[in-house]
Amino acid sequence: MNDQRSRKADAQQRGLQSNHLTVPMMELRMEVAALSDVGYRRLNNEDSFGYDSKTNIFVVCDGMGGLAAGEIASYKAVELTLKTYNELSNQEMEIEDRLRSAIASANETVWNMAQQNHKLRGMGTTLVAASILRNRLVLGNVGDSRAYFLRDGDCVQITEDHSYVAEQMRRGRTIISDEASQRLRQFITRAVGVLPSVEPDFFVLDLEPDDIILLTTDGLTRYADANKLAHHIYMYSNLEEICRGLIAIAHEGGAEDNVTCMLLRFS
């Protein structure tokens, strides 16, 4: 079984793509499952995910730019983040610095591709990534794909969305829930590949047995808050079954966008 994993949905069919693996760690064992679905409204899947079990790097991306451009942006961002992080694994670097360099490399590649091909101009992608060394977890994010942390039945959103609405709310401004605000929720203020450089946010956690990490795109989170996610995740024990149930939540809401979720569980 190849340790490096990367999946994206066929542009011509709906269907699920999934992966499941149990990985031994220095002090904790980790189980991984991931699933991506094109949803009901899109013709192709612009989400991508990937991970490498040898170096413990996990990435979920949601492409922007429409059709092929968004799909290319997300796929290349996953590929370059994994590749660069792995290339730096033998160097004396903190895992946050490795992750920062990996995201920077992904940003540079997607940006250059868009500049060299006018058909790809304007493409970009959100990115949320988790890197792990022993029991230390570093999360990095750009855009509105999210990481949630689950412990003892609780679920907390760790990352902060880089979107117009989220930034207005952080400034204390009231957002009226109407059609206009719904459109504004899709306006991303920071993304991989839309500018020559990008500044991710980083978060550090110490892991304990039974902790769970969820990496997901907004195709799921627009239909479920943290409480709803926790209720579903703790209802089942099989990670792939949980992923299928999370996709079902998006389907019940209309699944207007592609949906991707990745679960990491520690024991």
From TrEMBL:
Top EC class, one word: hydrolase
Domain PPM-type phosphatase positions: 31-266
Record keywords, A-Z: Hydrolase
CDD domains documented for this protein: PP2Cc (cd00143)
UniProt record, GO biological process: intein-mediated protein splicing
Record-level Gene Ontology MF annotations: protein serine/threonine phosphatase activity
Protein name: Protein phosphatase
Origin species: Tunturiibacter empetritectus
EC number: 3.1.3.16
Short name of one Pfam family: PP2C_2
